């Protein structure tokens, strides 16, 4: 029901898979079987400030103690797996680590601000790995294009992102103090996305740790490529996936028009291409309508750029075409592929 983003499942998203399985399993075990240990994972702000139980910042911000929060956060993690495919597991993990660390002081600042402004004392916050999940809404809002799917009651458009925001709203309203976690996560996500105070160079996964994790943990959480999907990759949005079959058929028709034919074969030929507008005419101009951009001689795209776009779920042919159209600008190429 959520946004379809690239290949189905958790292919090329081991970090997202680990966030789905490990915290969810521990949450269920704690709530159902080990209730005597629940107090150790409560995010008790008062205990941290008065009794200096700093360890609660670590344990209290890792595992959800409310199964509704576990379910909603799991849905969001599954949907946000597209960012791991786009950035790579290392950069995606660095984003999660940075927002998890940065959101902690913001939470204490907001608690004190609410106490001094409104006289409301907040002693406990919702437990779980929640702030980084709210932080992922920052790149989700800014970089994932919204495509209208339907219209409700003739006035309210429903896009491919609407249900994701609804799940986020459900998570936000699960507790009165969840807004503190949400605001802290969003601020931390904005700081990382804007690279405030050179945060990207301060909080990151070091190269040696990434190599160790790829050798030890990645095999445990890696997923095989879905056998039902094309080996050349699928688009990163629902509309791309819907149009790929039509695009393939349209390409076959276009190729048939370029095939040399005799006069008898051309007479009375029905131009099917008039019925099927090529999928990416706006992005990749056809050979019959050259543009000034086509006349410019482009340098060959690097394999690293092609591999990065293929990791996002696009085919090699689409990646090469997008890089040629954007003059090997990886950001413009990825945005064009996502928007068409």
Descriptive report:
- The chain has 340 residues and is mainly alpha-helical.
- The protein has 19 helices and four strands.
- A two-stranded antiparallel ribbon has the order 1-2.
- The longest helix is centred in the N-terminal third of the chain and has 30 residues, at 89-118.
- 31% of the residues are buried.
- Mean pLDDT is 78; it is low at 248-296.
- It is found in: Membrane.
- Pfam families: UBA (PF00627).
Read across the widest sheet, the strand sequence of neighbours is 1-2
Q: Given the structure, what is the number of helices?
A: 19
**Average pLDDT figure:** 78
Largest sheet: 2 strands, antiparallel
Choose one word for the global shape.
Answer: globular
**H/E series:** HEHHHHHEHHEEHHHHHHHHHHH
Question: How much strand?
Answer: under 5%
Distance between the termini: 21 Å
Structural class: mainly alpha
**Radius of gyration over all CA atoms, rounded:** 24 Å
Q: Based on DSSP secondary structure assignment, what is the total number of beta strands?
A: 4
Which ranges are low-confidence, i.e. pLDDT below 50, for 5 or more consecutive residues? Answer: 248-296
Q: Tell me roughly what share of residues is in helical segments.
A: 55-70%
Membrane topology: Multi-pass membrane protein
Organism: Pleurodeles waltl (Iberian ribbed newt)
Domain UBA: 300-340
Protein name: UBA domain-containing protein
């Amino acid at each position: 029901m959520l946004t379809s983003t690239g290949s189905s499942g958790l292919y090329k998203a081991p970090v997202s898979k680990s966030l789905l399985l490990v915290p969810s399993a521990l949450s269920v075990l704690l709530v159902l079987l080990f209730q005597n240990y629940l107090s150790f994972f409560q995010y008790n702000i008062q205990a941290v400030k008065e009794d200096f139980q700093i360890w609660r910042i670590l344990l209290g911000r890792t595992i959800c103690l409310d199964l509704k929060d576990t379910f909603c956060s799991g849905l969001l993690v599954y949907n946000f797996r597209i960012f791991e495919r786009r950035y790579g597991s290392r950069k995606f993990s660095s984003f999660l680590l940075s927002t998890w660390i940065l959101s902690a002081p913001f939470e204490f600042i907001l608690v004190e601000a609410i106490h001094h402004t409104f006289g409301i004392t907040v002693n406990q916050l919702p437990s779980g790995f929640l702030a980084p999940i709210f932080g992922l809404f920052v790149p989700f809002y800014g970089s994932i294009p919204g495509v209208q799917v339907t219209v409700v009651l003739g006035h309210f458009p429903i896009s491919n992102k609407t249900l994701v925001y609804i799940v986020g709203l459900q998570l936000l309203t699960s507790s009165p103090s969840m807004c503190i976690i949400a605001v802290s996560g969003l601020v931390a996500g904005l700081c990382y996305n804007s690279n405030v105070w050179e945060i990207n160079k301060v909080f990151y996964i070091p190269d040696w740790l990434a190599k160790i994790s790829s050798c030890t943990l990645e095999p445990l959480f890696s997923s095989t490529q879905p056998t039902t999907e094309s080996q050349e990759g699928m688009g990163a949005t629902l509309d791309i996936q819907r149009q790929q079959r039509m695009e393939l058929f349209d390409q076959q028709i276009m190729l048939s028009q370029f095939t040399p034919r005799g006069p008898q074969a051309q007479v009375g030929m029905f131009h099917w291409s008039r019925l099927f507008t090529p999928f990416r005419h706006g992005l990749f101009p056809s050979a019959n309508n050259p543009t000034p951009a086509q006349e410019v001689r482009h340098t060959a795209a690097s394999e690293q750029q092609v591999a990065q776009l293929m990791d996002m779920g696009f085919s090699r042919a689409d990646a090469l075409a997008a890089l040629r159209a954007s003059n090997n600008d990886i950001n413009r190429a990825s945005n064009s592929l996502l928007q068409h």
